[in-house]
Write a structure and sequence with these properties.
alpha+beta; Rieske Iron-sulfur Protein; Naphthalene 1,2-dioxygenase Alpha Subunit, Chain A, domain 1; 2 domains; 4-stranded antiparallel sheet; 7 helices; 16% helix; binds FE2/S2 (inorganic) cluster; binds fe (ii) ion
Length: 343
């Protein structure tokens, strides 16, 4: 028996988890995805709204996206015998029956969906608790102002608890990311944990360089104004799996602001989908140089990749030996545990 509920098999954190970016789901499109060791179907109905239900039809078990999916207005029809389900999971039509069996009405599970800031999240809770609206909207988000998310997503062998600990792990900066930490503070809230940090880049440090990078990380960081500035920023986990990071950089050549969203969504007990996503916007009237808008997100993804390299190979220490220079690892663990206890 583990001392943390989040280490128990088959348990996943209660809260919002990102499943797709908005632009990955066209109007009228149906897709399938597999998270929380469970199969789901997602579609965008006529109204433009996205809906998510369990994948398998309560009639005879067909996968609702088997033939690519059949949209009926805002509802979806099963490809096998044509039963029609709303996003709530309610069966609203059986084309060849006089009556819908009462049991069929609520047999399919529909999942709460939140589409915000250009991503689509579902509320996961084993006890079907009411969703809490804690994910902040990004100010004037929209492709016109910010450009759309540039993201990199990969599936790796890792545990969500390893990923989230990064937010308090002050001691890994110089070794993994090549930076000297000048200021570092964590603040804990009910649904949030924030890291306020100021890090001075140190290219000489023995940092990790993810393989397969199309550029030299140190060079890339120093290319283009703004990247040579010290990194400062505010990173906040909103709930158990979605981290927002805001940063601004001003220089005579390029002044810009950017949001990074890093998220992890558990696939099963041993794998997660990890994603690093970036949007940016000029702080002046001048548009950002095209080259820079390509390079900057690539550097952000590479920084995330530095952590990924560690996570995918590590084991989890339930009782770690910590020293006085470590961040508040155990405090973070107790905070994180709340997403696994009954609501
Ligand atoms: S299996 Fe879905 S309608 Fe029969
Ligand atoms: Fe890190």
């Amino acid at each position: 028996m583990s001392k943390y509920a989040y280490l128990e098999a088959g348990r996943y954190a209660r809260g919002w988890h990102i499943v797709l970016f908005s632009r990955e789901l066209e109007p009228g499109e149906v897709k399938r995805f597999h998270y929380f060791d469970r199969e789901f179907v997602i579609w965008r109905g006529e109204s433009g709204e996205a809906f998510v239900v369990d994948a398998y039809c309560p009639h005879l078990g067909a996968h609702l996206a088997s033939d690519g999916g059949r949209i009926r207005g805002n509802a979806i029809a099963c490809p096998f015998h044509g039963w029609v389900f709303e996003g709530s999971g309610e069966c609203i039509e059986i084309p060849y029956a006089k009556q819908i069996p009462p049991r069929a009405r609520q047999a399919l599970k529909g999942w709460p969906v939140l589409e915000r800031n250009g991503f689509i999240a579902i509320w996961y809770c084993p006890e079907d608790s009411e969703p809490v609206d804690y994910l902040p909207a990004i100010d004037d988000w929209g492709p016109g102002k910010w450009g759309d998310w540039q993201f990199q997503r990969s599936r790796i062998r890792a545990q969500p608890c390893d990923v989230i600990e990064n937010i308090v792990d002050i001691a890994h900066f110089p070794h993994v990311h090549g930076g000297n930490v000048h200021a570092f503070e964590n603040r804990f809230g009910d649904f949030t944990v924030t890291q306020i940090s100021r890090v001075k880049r140190d290219p000489q440090a023995g940092m990790i360089t993810p393989p397969g990078l199309p550029f030299d990380l140190v060079d890339a960081r120093n290319q283009g104004a703004g990247m040579e500035a010290d990194a400062w920023g505010d990173a906040t986990y909103h709930g158990p799996s979605i981290m927002y990071y805001y940063t601004e950089s001003r220089s005579p050549d390029i002044s810009f602001k950017s949001w990074w969203v890093n998220y992890h969504t558990p696939v099963n007990d041993s794998e997660v989908d990890l994603c690093s996503a970036v949007i940016m916007s000029s702080l002046t009237d001048a548009a950002l140089p095209e080259e820079f808008t390509q390079l900057y997100p690539a550097v952000a993804h590479a920084a995330f990749g530095q952590d990924v390299l560690i996570w995918q190979d590590k084991v989890y220490r339930e009782d770690p030996i910590l020293c006085d220079g470590d961040g508040p690892i155990n405090k973070l663990r107790r905070w994180y545990e709340r997403f696994y206890l009954p609501a």
